[in-house]
UniProtKB/TrEMBL annotation:
Name assigned to this protein: Anti-sigma factor RsrA
Extent of the signal sequence: none
Residue span, Putative zinc-finger domain: 11-44
Highest taxon in the source lineage: Bacteria
Gene: rsrA
Region Disordered, residue ranges: 84-103
Matches recorded under Pfam families: zf-HC2 (PF13490)
Length: 103
C-alpha cells in the first residue's frame, strides 16, 4: 500500500513493521520514524488505528485465558530458533511420540 505521496519512510516499510510498532518491539529510533510517518500519512495512520483497535478487542475478549505451560514452552522454543536463524521444522519435534497400539 502507498498513499502516493513521497515520504522519508515508505508506506510499505511502515506497514511491514506495524505490529512491531504496536507491540513496542522496535528500537526507539525506528519508532520515531514510524510515528513521524503517521503524522504525514493519513492512510497509514488509519491502518494503524484499525490494527490497534483489533488488538485491543482481541485482548479484551481473549486475554484472560491461561496458556498451558507446555504450549508456551513450545512456542518460545520456536521463537528462539527463528531468532537464532536456525531452520524451524515443519512438524512438532517437541511432541511426545505416539506409542504403537499392541494387538
Amino acid at each position: 500500500m502507498s498513499c502516493g505521496e513521497p515520504h522519508e519512510t515508505d508506506c510499505s516499510e511502515v506497514l511491514d513493521h506495524l505490529y512491531e510498532f504496536l507491540d513496542s518491539e522496535m528500537p526507539e529510533v525506528d519508532r520515531d520514524k514510524i510515528q513521524h510517518h503517521f503524522e504525514e500519512c493519513s492512510p497509514c495512520l488509519e491502518k494503524y488505528g484499525l490494527e490497534q483497535a483489533v488488538k485491543k478487542l482481541v485482548k479484551r475478549c481473549c486475554g484472560h485465558d491461561d496458556v498451558p505451560t507446555d504450549l508456551r514452552a513450545k512456542v518460545m522454543g520456536r521463537i528462539d530458533l527463528i531468532r537464532s536463524g536456525q531452520t524451524v521444522p515443519e512438524h512438532d519435534v517437541t511432541a511426545t511420540p505416539a506409542t504403537p497400539q499392541e494387538s
